[in-house]
Write a structure and sequence with these properties.
Layout (H helix, E strand, L loop, with lengths): L1 E6 L4 H8 L4 E6 L4 H7 L5 E4 L6 H6 L5 E4 L9 H7 L2 E3 L7 H16 L1 H9 L20 E5 L3 H12 L3 E5 L5 H6 L3 E2 L3 H7 L2 E4 L13 H4 L7 E4 L8 H9 L5 E4 L19 E3 L8 H19 L12
Parallel strand pairs: 1-2, 1-3, 3-4, 4-5, 6-7, 6-9, 7-8, 9-10, 10-11, 11-12
Helix pairs in contact: 1-12, 5-7
The protein binds nicotinamide-adenine-dinucleotide (NAD).
């Protein structure tokens, strides 16, 4: 039997697929501490991984391991240098993890531009009439300029939604050709600073790498328009949190939407938790019934396909 560790529970649809697969013997591992992973994982041939960090020290002990199938597309919680050295395959849910995040970005843009939280509170507090006399700076999305940083799977879904709202879309992604961005109705930006100066809305959909860590710091925020909003659903640390909090407080930019944090969960004293100019969600861009079900099935199917030697090449991370 092939032994599969399901590291961190996922939607039952994917678990059922793995458990009903005749060649597999599966175990769900919910204690994600390093100590537990180090003692449990050496017994397995394959791992599905949602949350939980698998570093080189753990991998060193996993002599039987042939494949890790990520529940998601980011893989900053795995030591990829080690995987490469040992020729262990890394798979991601390349086809099911972009619609919900793109919708989540739209939800954050809408929440900020329409002051949804403010209106909701006002109605519940009996301020239905007086709300008209209060200052509110809601704005239309039509004709606003959006800069999508990272024109991959999520970026490509996002542009369609932005164009649907009649926004003008710029994309900054040095690894994507102009003709691809053109074909989606966007405008390629070669220089990040140029894009930041133009945009009303800046949305990041890039992986966390050495190059993207601290991609947006205070100096970059100072280049932005005063009405600019930043949406980060990618990974914490791509937008520097302290600088963002300062930029919001000092009205250097208007607002921010964050689904991801430098430390997750964030500490209670993280000032962004109290910042009214920020809309926050708990790394939940994929938390829809559809996305979680499809991601779990794709995670499971990828590992089945690996052992059946019929893997779709889009699922394999080139490392
Ligand atoms: N919050 C969530 O729940 C959630 C869900 C899905 C994905 N994500 C994150 O979003 C990221 C993007 O997802 P995706 O599926 O679109 O990935 P993707 O790999 O399809 O696209 C990423 C794009 O970023 C570009 N890129 C890389 N480095 C760049 C740089 N320095 N400057 C500009 N562009 C750069 C790449 O060329 C690529 O086109 C993932 O890596 C993951 O970390 C978060």
């Amino acid at each position: 039997m092939v032994k599969i560790a399901i590291v961190d529970k996922m939607n039952q649809d994917g678990i059922d697929l793995l458990k009903n697969y005749p060649k597999f013997e599966c175990e769900i591992i919910e204690d994600l501490s390093k100590k537990n992973l180090m003692s449990k994982l050496p017994a397995f041939d394959g791992i599905t991984l949602r949350r939980g960090k698998i570093d080189a020290e753990i991998l060193e002990k996993c002599k039987k391991l042939k494949v890790i199938s990520r529940h998601g597309v980011g893989f900053d919680n795995v030591d990829i240098k080690f995987l490469k050295k040992k020729n262990i395959k890394l798979l991601v849910t390349a086809t099911t993890t972009s619609i919900s995040p793109a919708e989540h970005i739209m939800f954050m843009i809408m929440n900020i531009s329409k002051g949804i939280d403010f209106f909701d509170k006002a109605v519940r507090n009996g301020e239905f009439g007086s709300v008209m006399h209060l200052k509110h700076d809601n704005f239309e999305l039509s004709n606003k300029k959006v800069l999508i940083i990272g024109f991959g799977r999520i970026g490509k879904k996002l542009i369609k939604r932005c164009l649907g709202f009649e926004m003008k879309v710029y994309a900054y992604d040095p690894y994507v050709e102009k003709k691809v961005i053109d074909s989606f109705g966007g405008i390629k930006v070669d220089d990040l600073a140029d894009g930041l100066k133009k945009a009303d809305i800046i949305s990041l959909s890039v992986p966390l790498t050495k190059e993207t860590k601290n991609m947006l710091t205070l100096d970059k925020m100072k280049m932005m328009k005063k009405n600019a909003i930043i949406i980060n659903i990618s990974r914490g640390g791509i937008v520097n949190e302290k600088d963002l909090n300062d930029a919001l407080n000092e009205k250097i930019i208007y607002g921010a939407g964050l689904d991801v944090f430098e430390k997750e969960p964030p500490d209670n004293n993280n000032p962004l938790l109290k910042n009214k100019r920020a809309v926050l969600s708990p790394h939940a861009a994929t938390f829809t019934q559809e996305c979680l079900s499809k991601m779990s099935i794709e995670t499971a199917q990828n590992i089945i396909d690996f052992f059946e030697d019929k893997l779709n090449k889009n699922a394999v991370v080139k490392i």
